[in-house]
Specification:
Length: 594
């Protein structure tokens, strides 16, 4: 009973995900299945006239079905013959193949509709989730779900629909032989179902294999992703062999469960067929006698031989669905978790900064442990450069995450003029904010495509202006293909300084009212740093700028500076005042620690 309930609960999943949402496609498919059922019935009875003709060419003692067929032929002036019977038999089976192909087409069409819906619904939820959702879930799990488990889920839905078609086919195949020979048909079905019980019970095993397949798939994709992301470290540490070995181990661990299921699937296919034939033989031996009509018996055999492979496919499909259920469950769990962690902000559309952005007594910690920020108070004034400096791990980048709404304060508030950030439409705020980080991300396409990604409506004049402001034009003009040069994966074909300047130009094309630069020169040489500093000088006078840095050379032209340590502001003021004033800033300046 527990097993039955688990099967039906899984089938209920697919009913809700397919029949309710795609009822038009479902009923069209059902129509094709019913047409096929009618054709199958005709294909079964079409064997009777052929058998009767072989037994008695005069058809004097033919089956009533044959006599009805002969009478129908006479109405259209066609004489009955073996050729006519064969032509009818072949045409019916040809038409059956066409309807089967239409059903297959319908199932495939629905499968890819489901993949599209699942993929982009999940992507929408992922892109709407809070940042902490990504901190809790590994990239391997997310990538594996998106690239593999969704396809498996769609395949399970595909099998669910196929099960429905197989059910109709099976019952169509046995209706006619029931009419012709009720005893043989019922006994065959009964024996076949008895033989099917062990094969149905493998559903628990295949479900377990499916769970292990999903778990190991997550680990495999996670390791592959880490390997590709960390390839520079792997090469520089000379850890090629160990990285390959780790990936091979994960691959083998993953696919051993796939192989086990495929072996089980093959056994179901190959073993049940002889059992089904045995069921037919047992039924005939028990019931047949010399008085049986040979032509009817031929039709019964033809029908049962066609019906039992459908039962075999049904059993196999059930095992496949049980194997794929864990993929569906992981997909649903990830989708549910992303929905539960959806970003929640207000509806007030952000237009501009009138006066300032203010952090008021902000506390923040990632989990229940140590506070990253504590009673943080700072002000970013309109059209000025505000710098936040401190050593690594002091909480500078967390301030950026809070300011753009990737995280929200545990205590305190962030106000944009007189409006709490949480009450703003965060998308409108981000649309007018550009964030430039030290870890520049460029798409593997041309410089031009990377630029207009920020503003597809940007004019040529606007692009040129952004390139001038970011000091990018000179190096771009020296490239063989200029602005149409392909930058490579994450901009690998460009130097660090060039990537950073392209990133700044891209940020400028958004025409932001708030420009945030998170350690923009931390990993650059002195020449690149000077070019970017010059670019910032051009930008900052007309844009509200928050500069996160730890180099004095980067912040010396800032209008106001905050020194942060362990999540607390310990000093503030302009550069000249702070470097002369006794305190932590002067010590760091004198020792050139930051």
């Amino acid at each position: 009973m527990v097993f039955k309930m688990s099967i039906w609960s899984n089938y209920k999943y697919f009913y809700n995900e397919f029949v309710k949402l795609y009822y038009k496609d479902f009923f069209l498919l059902l129509l094709f299945v019913l047409i096929e059922a009618l054709v199958i019935s005709l294909s079964i009875i079409s064997i009777i006239p052929i058998a009767d003709f072989f037994l008695d060419q005069s058809l004097s003692e033919a089956n009533f079905i044959t006599l009805w067929f002969v009478k129908t032929l006479s109405l259209i002036n066609i004489d009955p013959s073996l050729l006519v019977f064969f032509i009818f038999f072949i045409l019916i089976n040809f038409f059956k193949s066409i309807t089967s192909s239409l059903i297959s087409y319908g199932i495939i069409r629905i499968k890819y509709k489901v993949i599209e819906r699942f993929s982009f619904d999940l992507l929408d939820k992922l892109l709407s989730a809070k940042w902490k959702f990504y901190l809790k879930n590994s990239s391997g799990k997310i990538i594996n779900t998106y690239t593999n488990e969704i396809k498996k889920t769609a395949s399970a839905l595909n099998d669910f629909v196929t099960q429905i078609a197989l059910g109709f086919k099976f019952f169509t195949y046995i209706i006619t032989p029931m009419v012709l020979s009720f005893k043989i048909t019922i006994l065959t079905i009964a024996v076949s179902f008895i033989f099917a019980i062990p094969f149905l019970l493998v559903g628990k095993i295949t479900n377990y294999l499916g769970k292990k397949n999903v778990e190991t798939g997550n680990k495999f994709m996670n390791r592959i992703n880490e390997t590709l992301q960390g390839i520079k470290s792997i090469l520089s540490f000379a850890r090629k062999k160990i990285s390959i070995r780790q990936n091979v181990d994960n691959f083998r661990n993953h696919y051993k469960y796939t192989i086990k299921f495929q072996i089980l699937d093959t056994l179901i296919i190959n073993l049940y067929q002889p059992f089904s034939l045995l069921a037919i033989c047992i039924a005939i031996l028990i019931n047949v006698d010399n008085s049986e009509n040979i032509s009817e018996l031929a039709a019964v055999l033809w029908s049962l031989m066609a019906a039992l492979p459908n039962l075999n496919s049904f059993i196999r499909g059930n095992a496949t669905i049980q194997n794929l259920i864990p993929a569906f469950q992981q997909f649903r769990e990830l989708e549910k978790e992303a929905s539960q962690n959806k970003e929640i902000f207000g509806r007030k559309v952000f237009e501009d900064i009138k006066k300032e952005i203010k952090f008021k007594n902000v506390d923040f910690s990632y989990y229940s442990g140590e506070k990253v920020l504590e009673k943080l108070n700072l002000i970013v004034k309109k059209n000025s450069i505000t710098a936040l400096v401190g050593e690594s791990g002091s909480g500078k980048s967390t301030v950026v995450d809070l300011l753009i709404g990737l995280q929200t304060p545990n205590i305190g508030e962030i106000r944009v003029d007189d409006v709490n950030l949480i009450d703003l439409d965060i998308q409108s705020f981000r649309e007018k904010t550009s964030v430039i980080s030290q870890d520049v991300f460029l798409f593997n396409t041309s410089i031009y495509e990377n630029l207009i990604w920020a503003n597809p409506k940007a004019t040529e004049t606007e692009i040129e202006s952004a390139l001038d402001l970011s000091n990018s034009r000179e190096f771009i003009n020296k490239l063989e293909n200029g602005i149409h040069t392909i930058v490579g994966e994450r901009g690998v074909n460009l130097s660090g300084g060039q990537r950073q300047r392209i990133s700044i130009a891209r940020g400028l094309l958004k025409k932001p009212v708030l420009f945030i630069l998170d350690e923009p020169t931390s990993s650059l040489d002195s020449i690149s740093e000077k070019l970017i500093q010059d670019a910032l000088e051009k930008i900052a006078r007309t844009t509200t700028t928050l500069l996160i840095a730890h180099r004095f050379s980067t912040i010396k032209n800032a209008d106001y500076i905050y020194l942060i340590r362990s999540g607390k502001i310990i000093q503030e003021g302009d550069f000249e005042t702070l470097k002369e004033q006794e305190g932590e800033f002067k010590k760091l300046f004198d020792n050139q620690i930051i």
